[in-house]
């Protein structure tokens, strides 16, 4: 079974949407990536840090899904990273109410020995120096390195971010971040500039408007599944990344055709994530539901046009 | 050859985008619809009104494309409808600088005798009473009636708009208009409410984010083609409607499968429209380019996932 190494936050979130609010619940980029990738036949590990306020039942959740947690450092007397946010009525924008870095402030990632030769590496959104620190510990070149980042690092650690971007195969950013990173409004032009920074594949996430995959002159697009109600968008991008990397790690196939499938699986899993608060929907999701939704994605996008009769 | 009846404005536009500005150029919903539908094997007619300031060469443009202009009333001493607008930097929003209704203020549409039994009727954006006036002149039930409208009529002629909506098979509105018409943020819920108002098919246009087709519980999505540069979005929605109705009129097939194809052709033609100011790109477009771009739409959206190996 192929190995997927995941780096990112494991955290507490408190979320407010127009539909309700939560207390501190399980959150963090690596959490969503891990739970999503667990739908594929891969052996995965999370590298992260939590405080000793982090419940054992959450760690068990990972273990039950065949996710190695030996790379999750538990800091004695430390407090777990906490984020709190409130979504606006359209759910497309949000205000951060509180961010407490806590144990994340001094995080030194340690890659478990068994994952230093991982086949696929997913660098979840974190300080680019931490992401780089993980790459430096690898003993073999992975088949694929995927990087997620965000505007915050473009604002305050751009030089370091550009360095790590140079070292990855795939980057996933949202449309606004792609524009900020390149100064180009057109996503086609932005993707071309990001290609030139290093990544052979550029994934631009547009939230409810889907995701674009760019490679050379090729472009593939996957829509988001139109839903009756988006309940909580938290973690959708990370769930997408988990589906993407999980599928690639399982299939061991880096053709563009297979990358397209990975984008579809990422969108598929993300469409479940947003149906309930936090990780709730992912936790009770089963493979049959994922397969069924794949048929919905096909119905939504596939057409068959014979050449026009003259 | 099947008949397509088009009702809508034929106008002068003056457009400002971040890339430049135009003097008075050819514009109007029926103009874009007609030029776009002309790529299909249909016999079409435009019902509209212009002043005698409207150049003969523009009328010739229609005639050359096999568009019957006997329903375009030329008002002696009258001035043609004029619209002027300035797009913002992102090209997603615009300010109207000037609107001069002129001859449109007293427009009484007259359907040419030969088109009273049209196979497909495209009611372009106009006062709903004018749209209704056209339907009342038909002597046979068309195979398909398609309605375009906009927020302006929802604000100032809602009762009349709802009456005409009740009588059509397909409605095309943009996402904001769908929300305004129904009070639902979710486009899935909005489409369901619009279905209940009459139309069996609901097309929601999302501009650069593509278009959705809703029918019963079925949904189909066509992306906009990602372009290096969108030069001028004016007329894109009408060009989409022209491609949609032109394809349906040519193929005489109202299956959902064929409706999907029509949505793709609408998106295809709209992707050309935005490449240059006004109707310039549509005017010099040829069928080979349309076919070639169809391949791009396929590459952009089609995938082939075998069921996951266990």
Notable features of this structure?
310 residues, 37% helix, UDP-N-acetylmuramoyl-L-alanine:D-glutamate ligase, homodimer, 11 helices
What is the radius of gyration of chain A computed over CA atoms, rounded to a whole number of angstroms?
19 Å
The percentage helix of chain A is 25-40%
- The separation of the N and C termini of chain A measures 53 Å
- Number of domains as seen in the coordinates of chain A: 1
Apparent shape of chain A:
globular
What's the story with the biggest beta sheet of chain A? 10 strands, mixed
Mean pLDDT of chain A: 96
What order do the SSEs of chain A take from the amino end to the carboxyl end, as H and E? EEEEHEHEEEEEHEHHEHHEEEHHHH
CATH superfamily of chain A: Ribokinase
Low-confidence residue ranges of chain A: none
- Number of helical elements of chain A: 11
Percent in strands of chain A: 15-25%
The tally of strands of chain A reads: 15
According to CATH, the fold-level topology of chain A is UDP-N-acetylmuramoyl-L-alanine:D-glutamate ligase
Determine the most extensive contact between two protein chains: A-B, 42 and 42 residues
Oligomer: homodimer
Architecture per CATH nomenclature, i.e. the level-2 architecture of chain A = 3-Layer(aba) Sandwich
The CATH class assignment of chain A is Alpha Beta
**Class computed from helices, strands and strand pairing of chain A:** alpha/beta
Keywords (chains A, B): Kinase, Transferase
Domain Carbohydrate kinase PfkB (chains A, B): 21-280
GO molecular function, one term (chains A, B): kinase activity
Protein name (chains A, B): Sugar kinase
């Amino acid at each position: 079974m192929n190995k997927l190494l995941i780096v990112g936050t494991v955290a507490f979130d408190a979320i407010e949407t127009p539909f309700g609010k939560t207390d501190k619940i399980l959150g963090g980029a690596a959490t969503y990536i891990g739970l999503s990738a667990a739908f594929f036949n891969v052996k995965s590990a999370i590298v992260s840090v939590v405080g000793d306020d982090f419940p054992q039942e959450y760690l068990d959740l990972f273990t039950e899904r065949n996710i190695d947690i030996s790379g999750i450092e538990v800091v004695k007397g430390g407090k777990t990273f906490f984020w709190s946010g409130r979504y606006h009525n359209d759910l497309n924008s949000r205000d951060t109410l509180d961010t407490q870095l806590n144990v994340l402030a001094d995080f030194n990632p340690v890659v478990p020995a068994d994952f230093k030769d991982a086949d696929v590496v997913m660098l979840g959104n974190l300080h680019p120096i931490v992401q780089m620190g993980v790459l430096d510990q690898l003993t073999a070149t992975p088949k694929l390195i995927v990087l997620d980042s965000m505007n915050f690092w473009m604002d305050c650690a751009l030089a370091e971010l550009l360095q790590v971007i140079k070292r990855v195969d795939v980057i996933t950013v949202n449309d606004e971040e792609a524009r900020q990173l390149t100064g180009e409004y057109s996503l086609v032009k932005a993707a071309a500039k990001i290609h030139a920074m290093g990544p052979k594949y550029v994934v631009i996430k547009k939230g409810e408007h889907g995701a674009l995959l760019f490679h050379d002159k090729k472009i593939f697009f996957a829509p988001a599944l139109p839903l009756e109600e988006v309940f909580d968008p938290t973690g959708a991008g990370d769930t997408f990344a988990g589906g993407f990397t999980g599928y690639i790690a399982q299939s061991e196939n880096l053709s563009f055709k297979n990358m397209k499938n990975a984008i579809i699986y990422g969108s598929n899993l993300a469409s479940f994530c947003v149906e309930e608060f936090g990780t709730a929907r992912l936790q009770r999701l089963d493979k049959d539901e994922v397969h069924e939704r794949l048929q919905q994605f096909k119905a939504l996008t596939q057409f068959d046009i014979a050449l026009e009769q003259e």
